[in-house]
Specification:
8-stranded mixed β-sheet, 28% strand, Rossmann fold, alpha/beta, oxidoreductase activity, acting on NAD(P)H
């Protein structure tokens, strides 16, 4: 292992003491991980907070085999040490990275295929808000969903980290963007980000609103993190040959639906998770992002929407904020 600075043997990390509410997130001292072949060690300056972290804390989303048991799926920081077989990165490089776990800590080891340079002009707290959402949206909206210029995207949860990312990227690549959100304030925020139509789902039926906004055609791609009774309604809101991409099931994993809609409209209902995928798969997404999206980040044509920043030791407060559902954009931990 190559390192250019004194790396301590121990570090502060936020562990899940037992499944439960936000207060089960406890600071503890852990050994600093050692990077293996193809891995780098990052001195973490900031870590993003995501819905899967909350699910892991509750005991509903265990880490994949071989991953850290600590929560945290994205970080930014500096390269502190290199494992064997590393050619691109050097000690001291400013980077952000997607991790399979372990981000809520002062150091984390990451496979080099999931590492990207800090976007030009970004702070570490901004950069930590990028990897999980941008990897997820790029794969599910543009690769799996096949969204193209001139098509209509319906994204549910438009004020979430995923939603704000999907709105900006779809708009930047020439799509017509419709989103749902739960308040006028959140709808206004979505419109400012580039959404063409924002639907307050507490006041309007999104199926009717989508049909009206598209002259009866429906949405070509629907990015859904709700599930439950949204499944049937998504089928109704989709255009002929529409693609519904499921990335979460916050309202329930079991639903009753009229599957004749799939046949009549020739719909595709697909979905994916990111965390357990291979390092090769994630590296391919990283390469696509660096080529297609990093230039947009560098010019601020797209950028993460920042909600709140908390100290690492107040991770429980960050989880409370997320579960309250009032945030707009990303919640980030400042690691120092």
């Amino acid at each position: 292992m190559a390192s250019g600075q004194r790396i301590p043997a121990r570090m502060t990390a936020i562990a899940i003491s037992e499944p439960g509410g936000p207060r089960v997130l406890k600071p503890e001292t852990r050994d600093v991980p050692q990077p293996g072949p193809g891995e780098i060690l990052i001195k973490v300056h900031a870590a993003g907070v995501n819905r899967p972290d909350v699910q892991q804390r509750k005991g509903a989303y265990p880490p994949p085999p071989g991953a850290s048991d600590l929560p945290g799926l994205e970080v930014s920081g500096e390269v502190a040490a290199l494992g064997d077989e590393i050619s691109r990165w050097r000690i001291g490089d400013r980077v952000c990275a997607l991790t399979p776990g372990g981000g809520y800590a002062e150091y984390v080891k990451v496979h080099t295929g999931s590492v990207l340079p800090l976007p030009a002009g970004f702070t570490h707290t901004e950069a930590a808000a990028v990897p999980e959402n941008y990897f997820t949206v790029w794969h599910n909206v543009f690769e799996r969903g096949g969204l193209t210029k001139g098509e209509t995207l319906l994204v549910h949860g438009g004020s979430s980290g995923i939603g704000t990312t999907a709105i900006q990227l779809a708009s930047a690549f020439g799509a017509y963007v419709i989103t749902t959100a739960g308040s006028r304030e959140k709808c206004d925020a979505c419109l400012k980000l580039g959404a063409d139509r924002a639907i307050n789902y507490r006041e309007e039926d999104f199926v009717t609103a989508v049909k009206e906004a598209t002259e009866g055609k429906g949405a070509n791609v629907i990015l859904d993190m709700v599930g439950g009774d949204y499944v049937q309604r998504n089928y109704e809101a989709a255009a002929v040959e529409g693609r519904i991409v499921q990335i979460a099931v916050q309202a329930g994993a079991v639903a009753s639906a009229d599957f004749s809609k799939i046949m009549v409209k020739r719909l595709t209902h697909t979905g994916s998770t990111l965390r357990p995928r291979t390092v090769e798969f994630k590296a391919a997404i990283a390469a696509a992002l660096e080529a297609q999206v990093w230039p947009l980040l560098g010019t601020r044509k797209v950028a993460p929407v920042m909600d709140m920043i908390y100290p690492l030791t107040d991770a429980w407060r960050a989880h409370e904020r997320m579960e309250e559902g009032e945030h707009i954009g990303k919640i980030v931990l400042d690691v120092g």
